């Protein structure tokens, strides 16, 4: 679902329409499902209709969330930066332009970069913030990724599996609350074989209307074909690093070309792709990060999904230092300039790193998608990718963004150009 925008009602006509003021301009808009408003009320609206009445405090909070840095004073920016911005507007950024942006340190230039990225977001996809729910249904994993607390060799983790019935019930409840896009995520747990995963997808789809991303790691192409036929629409499957050597070190027993081939094949099968990398892996350079962004673009990624490494205890990377949050914001802003229409995700690792303002800073640098954790409370702490994982039940967003009914599905399908 998308976060809808606040406006003040100017007048209500008898033609099923109202005039609303969005702050910058007045708009005439269909009342949609709303029938109890008068001049002076605050409402949420989409491009085509009103969604619901809200109170002024909520409206102000949403405005704050969607705030922007001031427009840069272009005359005072260095020539190289201005040239790179021009290339961005022509969509001709080169790898060396991206490396230059990743190496920026001057705070005025960084703010100008974030501001420019946010302007790009607003002019390409307006202020719509996509809301997703994630259900982490199993923390068993056969792999040993160096960064991840769920790695098979970590015997300190209390392992759990939700039953298929529990997964379906959790998903159905979420859709009932208004969620329309869900991610089903787990470690690589083959207990959930082809038949079980297909049945879970089919059961969810038969009980409610929802778009499902799978995030379950490596499976055969034949299995992914079956999951697609059962009704899965997308995959959240990161390439983790575009640097072959780093990838092989981080994911023992795996090679990058295999992961990229799988992503390309999944795209051919019709899956919507959510992919990206980890920022701050040991030895990673600006050149690697530039290649990560270019690879997301080459793969035609719909939802760029990346985040900072949070060094996790009981993993080989436990002693690594944390990357500076500005690197995360740069990655968001640069990805926005390179992929203006994509849905850049504010990931849990970003929120874990900066729990107070991580989400808003990410939006201000060009991100526009957020994910709430719907894993039942009794399992949540055991999905231990890293410690002190950020958690927000998303109640405010449910109030602001999740509404039900045919119109809301139509809006989603149109905004996202996907079928639900
Ligand atoms: N097992 C599946 C999905 C679950 S893991 C898979 O690997 O595809 C989801 C993501 O968590 C991974 O893609 C990885 O990028 C991220 N992750 C794991 N450990 C992390 C850490 N310590 N810090 C930041 N992100 C991490
Ligand atoms: Fe397993 Fe995924 Fe963690 Fe790797 S990142 S250890 S595949 S859960």
Rg result: 22 Å
Please name the fourth-level CATH homologous superfamily of the largest domain: Aldolase class I
Give the DSSP E fraction (strand runs of 2 or more residues): 15-25%
How many structural domains are formed by the residues? 2
Helicity, in percent? 40-55%
Q: What hetero molecules are bound to the protein chains? A: S-adenosyl-L-homocysteine, iron/sulfur cluster
Name of the level-1 CATH class of the largest domain: Alpha Beta
N-to-C terminal Cα separation, in Å?
Answer: 11 Å
Which whole number gives the mean pLDDT? 93
Q: How many E-type strands? A: 16
Taking the sheet with the most strands, its summary is: 9 strands, mixed
**Sheet/helix structural class:** alpha/beta
Give the CA-based shape: globular
> How many DSSP H or I helices?
16
CATH architecture tag of the largest domain = Alpha-Beta Barrel
Unreliable runs: none
Question: What fold name stands as the CATH topology of the largest domain?
Answer: TIM Barrel
